[in-house]
Design goal:
alpha+beta, about 25% strand, elongated, 9-stranded mixed sheet, Structural Genomics Hypothetical 15.5 Kd Protein In mrcA-pckA Intergenic Region, Chain A
Length: about 230
């Protein structure tokens, strides 16, 4: 494992922050100064400022994100963050992002390889949203969403779309572009008024109130890893 990833797993800092610690000469591996390209094996001894470090175990958390919370570890504007809501002993970070006003299922983990694959469109992990929109989408608008919508950063992949009530659409996507669901619905003439993610891969929010979180079960982790082809 690369040293910066090892430090992130140890809960020291993000990978970018770990790079700065390494460049500052504060990290040693087996008594030698660590480098940005240093790889750490299971028997290696890693120290920060002369203090031995231990790699944390892998952790997987599902949060029912409430509105007004930003999907970051810290916010310069002082807004509440999802990492602040999840008081976990391991340093977990969100997989992908939800806008501050978007609610629902958010996965946090320190498993970097799984996080990368879950967020990558190549692995086609479903994210299911329920959107309250202006107007009442007709079948033609839903068909456009399902074929893919031309946005300023390119055409979206085919999605699944269905009207569940007047002014309400369930949209299933496997990409993760910025504001993607909102932009897709706006492109077909139905701007989003409220957006909630009801499912991430196999994970649903059953039993989780807004702001609550829980550890994933071993079965859920195994299924996520299978869906990401790990």
């Amino acid at each position: 494992m690369r040293l910066n990833a090892w430090l992130a797993r140890a809960g020291v800092a993000s990978r970018r922050g770990a790079d700065e610690l390494i460049k500052a000469g504060r990290v040693t591996v087996n008594g030698e100064p660590g480098q940005l390209n240093t790889f750490v094996e299971s028997r290696d001894r890693v120290e920060l400022d002369g203090r031995p470090l231990a790699k944390q175990g892998l952790a997987y958390v599902l949060l029912n994100k409430p509105p007004g919370v930003v999907t970051t570890a810290r916010d310069p504007q002082g807004r509440p963050t999802v990492v602040g809501l999840v008081e976990h002993e391991a340093r977990v970070v969100p997989v992908g992002r939800l806008d501050a006003d978007t609610t629902g299922a958010l996965l946090l983990t320190n498993d970097g390889e799984l996080a990368y694959r879950l967020a990558h469109p190549r692995y086609e992990v479903d994210k299911v949203y329920v959107a309250h929109v202006d107007g009442d989408p007709e079948p033609q608008a839903l068909a456009r969403l399902e074929r893919g919508v031309e946005l300023e950063d390119g055409r979206t992949a085919p999605a699944r779309a269905r009207r569940t009530a007047p002014g309400r659409v369930e949209l299933t996507v496997h990409e993760g572009r910025k504001h993607q669901v909102k932009r897709m619905l706006a492109a077909v003439g139905h701007p989003v008024r409220r957006l909630h993610r009801v499912r991430y891969g196999i994970l649903t929010l059953d039993g989780l109130a807004p702001g609550e979180w829980r550890e994933l079960t071993r079965t859920e982790v195994d299924e996520l890893r299978r869906s990401a082809r790990l």
